[in-house]
Amino acid sequence: MNTRNYKKDISDQGSVKGQTNQNFGYSQPQQFQDGISRIQEEMMDPRNIQPDSMFLNFSGVLECGECEDEESLRIEYAVKYGGDDWTYLKTSNNADDAEPSGISQLSTSRNLHSRNIVWNFPFECNFQTKNIFGWPQVVVRLSGPDFMGRSVAKGYGSVHVPTQPGYHERVIRIFKPLPISGFTGFLGYLLGNTAELKNFDKVISSGEGREVTRVKSVGYVKVKFHVTLVNFDKFGYL
Amino acid sequence: MSMPYQQTGNQIDYQEIKQTKADLKAEVHFIGQIVGGLDFQTDDGLFCELAIDCGDGWDLLQPGNNKGIQTQTSYANPGQLFSWGHPFDLHFSVSNISGWPKALLKVWRLDSSNKIDACSYGTALFPRSAGYHQITCETWTPTGENLDLEVRKPNEDLATNTDQFSKFDRSLDWRFQALSFYMENPPRLTTLAPLTTDKGDFARRKILNSISNGKVIIEVEVVMKNFKRLSFSGQ
């Protein structure tokens, strides 16, 4: 139905000389009991409204993991996303909620036979976007006490948030940077300065500048995701 | 079918949204990471180089430069995954479906004297349906060339053409294999043309001899835009 012409008709009606209340072929709005015309009701139907951005809401749990021969570990996560088109919607006005991240408890494996460490650490994020490029990824860092009790990094890894709505399980492969030489490694072991990544979230999520780093695989972390997408079908994706 | 209205502020203001041509173009996003390598049976460090190859109708919108990916160097125990964990995010605009993107992989070896050398090659085809996929790409290492396949004309009988026996098959020659083993430099491809059907030189792949090598694991999520609207399959 052609509502554009309807609006013009209303505004033009008064200016035409001698033709007040003339019906130019359009029917008068039908009055319903609650007082909304059919056209207004159609305009308020969310299926007819073209939104201006898409929303991604996901929650998940960093469930459990293993890292070679480690008994006690904590897991830290950060959600990295493409900067320009994506907006992280904060859930509160706290300053420490500015970037989605978190640190879990320090957990220990149950007995000597199993190296499985359970964190069961939940997280949830809301994003607003107009573009798929820069889809968020969860970057994790495992850390734990060394032989002196100092907290050192034991591994890093990353995984993309699933793009399909629903429940998904993913496995993050964890790797640890290697020291430059045997002597540096030994000294670092004594002093608690083991090879670590500064700004691990930027380095791992972008992939730039990692060509010359050397790493060793050390384990895995299991993650569970629940994803809800809003307005993606209106933009042509889904 | 009703026209779309834009909701501006609290008022419902009905303006017609003009849909531009770009809104109806098919676009594909490949979001994922090169997870790692498996079964390479080496003590050296390995890293992977990935180049994207696609047809002419595919336009890489983001990221701006298509210079390829080089992962970190990983070491692993026997049977363990060489973990590279390199994320990538590709945004293509599609005007012609022909030439679906493929990843041309080259695995490099970093040995104990800090020297790098080519280890193996592979071609991984990106999936054609939306959602999460885990691609396992088997790789191969070239061991030599079989040049007499180029010289011999098809349908020609070997018995009548005795010239062919004078050319030996270089890759099966024990001297060539011993040299490449002890010098630790297996033959390498000079171009990536034999890996992809899009470039002209793919036909020369028939002269290669190769040996099997490990596998590269890639996880990728495919997001498609307007595929259903344009009646392309996969979304």
TrEMBL record, chain A:
Keywords: Cell projection, Cilium biogenesis/degradation, Cytoplasm, Cytoskeleton. GO terms for cellular component: MKS complex. PROSITE patterns: C2_B9 (PS51381). The keyword Cytoplasm applies. The keyword Cytoplasm applies. Signal peptide: none annotated. GO terms for biological process: cilium assembly. This is B9 domain-containing protein 1.
UniProtKB/TrEMBL annotation, chain B:
GO terms for biological process: cilium assembly. GO terms for cellular component: MKS complex. Signal peptide: none annotated. Coiled coil: none annotated. The keyword DNA damage does not apply. It is found in: Cytoplasm, Cytoskeleton, Cilium basal body. PROSITE patterns: C2_B9 (PS51381). Keywords: Cell projection, Cilium biogenesis/degradation, Cytoplasm, Cytoskeleton. InterPro entries: C2_B9-type_dom. The keyword Protein biosynthesis does not apply. This is B9 domain-containing protein 2. It comes from Paramecium octaurelia.
